[in-house]
Automatic annotation (TrEMBL):
Protein name: Acyl-CoA dehydrogenase
Origin superkingdom: Bacteria
A GO term from the CC aspect: plasma membrane
Domain Acyl-CoA dehydrogenase/oxidase N-terminal: 40-160
């Protein structure tokens, strides 16, 4: 395996706090269906994942970025070391920590699974695309496939024998999936002939697995236009024999690979299906015209996974910037900046560098809390189903409203924070000797794929706010309000909790503004114009709440510690993350609410020609 340099680092103490102290892993673990799990088992998995991330995946990150993927004889060859890493990843069970035991997994709570994924993504985002797509395909088939399909495909996807993909995008149909032209023609034996071209297919072809199982959206001949007429098909690269073995080629051809801004170790492919009219697929679940609802089983998980990708790279960028700032000496202390004889100090002593680092720290910790909060809701919904259906519905509803926040806010902030890490380094950050420029390039795609972040915002304001008659959003607001009322007079954080209350009020008033627009045809265009702003507002309220919640817990823990206890500095850090965010970010929510009521429609009012008169 390549002997590259590992740059990946994280803080396991922070992961332990978020899982075990803030979100009560012990309240979920130890009970069905997670009865085999407890804090000791979870900590061992996190420690082993961190070892694997540093020793195996981290050293391949920059070398794979430089080498990229290449095509030989119609097949993608992945960067050096990826084959060995793929084998070890599946053998050691890192991708199946949260998979049910009846599918060969370890059946952990999702809370642990997302922490594992953060490290795998942070160490090598490009590599983790391959098993990530495979895992998503297996998850979809385990939920939507027929008994025969589950038996034939899921096990081999979940042990790394086969890889998997999701194939939606076409040259003329990106976010407008309903415009897809890939066709499916019924055959007498129940199979379908698939014909069409899909683009931007992550992990679309590679040399890591024996076979690749494509999940392809296509329109059966005669089906209705738009998304309602789409069906989902299992289309292997190599045909799968009755005994489950890979057989002859299935008329699935690699068209090309994209040369991208980032994640260069991940093969993003153009795939041609049925150029010779001999590409066979089978219908997922045996039912036509429900392809979009089936694909969304994979898409929703993928959107959460993108937020985790963003967190992984933002966290890695933060810790690298912090390490550099402690080591790099430049300039005198700010109190003696006019004294040319003043000794040089580490740049972490400069106020602006400290500001940037604390901004990164607070966002990384807050986004991590948001993701683990979503995972906790998922785990509790699973445990309560059939026992307390009302509470299970509450938890599922919170997953619904938090998913677009995790995907969009996590990915938007990842790119911004990675760019900020470059700024901490100064000129050194712009060169490839250090990892942060790669983190920045790699992270840009996160706000684009699995539904652009505007799609997430429209999903939030157009669908999630009104789900269950608005109950899910209202319950989110009640959860925030409960924290506010319990801590409004807190001796340390009272002022900041009041700032959270003001932000919450601004968010609620903005939700009512959007509701009013939706009922006025003359103002309906204001909804897409303001959707991204509203999603950011809600994300900032959620993150501010969770950071303050962590700070309150940290202060309680500090009360029982001696002056020399090493945990004192950790808990102090949690307090300052919350204070900075509450003082510097939460006031933006109030300002955004004031901007919403101004009803600025200038982007719709400017004539096309006025954008640039000469074009």
């Amino acid at each position: 395996m390549s002997a590259g340099i590992n740059h990946y680092k994280t803080d396991l103490r922070e992961l332990f706090f978020t899982l075990f102290e803030q979100f009560g892993f012990e309240q979920v673990a130890g009970q069905a269906p997670f009865e085999a799990w407890g804090p000791d088992e979870a900590k061992a998995v996190l420690q082993e994942t961190y070892r694997f991330s540093k020793e195996v995946l981290g050293p391949l990150n920059s070398s794979a970025d430089r080498e990229g993927c290449r095509v030989e004889n119609g097949t993608v060859l992945t960067p050096k070391g990826f084959k060995e890493a793929w084998k070890l990843l599946w053998e050691q069970g890192f991708k199946t920590v949260g998979v049910a035991a009846d599918h060969g997994g370890q059946g952990s709570p999702m809370m642990l699974q997302v922490a594992v994924e953060e490290m795998l993504c942070g160490a090598n985002a490009a590599f983790n695309m391959y098993p990530g797509l495979t895992f998503g395909a297996a998850e979809l088939l385990s939920e939507c496939g027929t008994a025969d399909q589950k038996k034939k495909f899921v096990e081999k996807l979940l042990n790394g024998t086969w890889g998997g993909t999701m194939c939606l995008t076409e040259p003329h149909a990106g976010s407008d999936v309903g415009a897809a032209k890939t066709s499916a023609r019924r055959n007498p034996d129940g199979t379908y002939n698939i014909r069409g071209t899909k683009i931007f297919i992550s992990a679309g072809d590679h040399d890591l697995a024996e076979n690749i199982i494509h999940l392809v959206l296509a329109r059966v001949e005669g089906a209705a236009p738009g998304t309602k007429g789409l069906s989902l098909f299992i289309v292997p690269k190599l045909r799968v024999s009755a005994d489950g073995s890979s057989g002859a080629a299935n008329d699935v051809a690699l068209g090309s690979i994209e040369h991208k801004m980032g994640i260069n170790g991940s093969a993003t492919c153009v795939i041609n299906f049925g150029e010779n009219d001999s590409c066979l697929g089978e219908l997922v679940g045996g039912v036509e015209h429900i392809g979009m609802s089936q694909m969304f089983k994979m898409m929703n998980g993928a959107r959460i996974a993108v937020g985790i990708q963003g967190l992984g790279l933002a966290s890695a960028a933060y810790f690298n910037a912090l390490e550099y700032a402690k080591d790099r000496k430049q300039g005198g202390h700010f109190t003696k900046w006019k004294d040319p004889t003043s000794p040089r100090v580490p740049i972490i002593q400069h106020p602006d560098v400290r500001r940037m680092l604390l901004e990164m720290k607070s966002h990384v910790e807050g986004i991590r809390a948001l993701i683990v909060k979503l995972a906790m809701h998922t785990d509790k919904a699973k445990q309560l189903q059939g026992k307390d259906d009302d509470r299970a519905a509450y938890h599922r509803g919170q997953v619904e409203v938090l998913t677009p926040l995790v995907k969009a806010y996590g990915s938007d902030q990842a790119f911004r924070l990675c760019a900020q890490a470059i700024q901490v380094y100064g000129g050194a950050g712009f060169i490839k000797d250090y990892p942060v420029e790669q983190y920045c390039r790699d992270s840009k795609i996160f706000s684009i794929y699995e539904g652009t972040n505007h799609i997430q915002a429209m999903d939030l304001v157009g669908r999630k706010l009104g789900m269950a008659g608005g109950a899910h959003f209202q319950q989110f607001m009640e959860d925030v309000g409960g924290f506010v009322e319990a801590n409004r007079e807190h001796k340390t954080f009272g002022t900041e909790v009041k700032a959270l209350a003001a932000a919450q009020e601004g968010l609620m008033s903005s939700a009512m503004v959007i509701l009013g627009w939706s009922q006025d045809p003359a103002k309906v265009s204001l909804i897409p114009l303001s959707a991204n702003r509203f999603l950011q507002m809600m994300s900032e309220v959620a993150v501010g709440w969770l950071l303050l919640d962590a700070a309150v817990l940290a202060e309680k823990s500090l009360e029982g510690l001696s002056a020399t206890d090493p945990d004192r500095t950790f808990y102090e850090g949690k307090k300052w993350s919350a204070l900075w965010y509450a003082r510097n970010v939460l006031p933006n929510v109030e300002q955004a609410a004031r901007m919403m009521v101004q009803e600025d429609a200038s982007p719709m009012q400017i004539p096309d020609a006025a954008f640039a008169a000469s074009l």
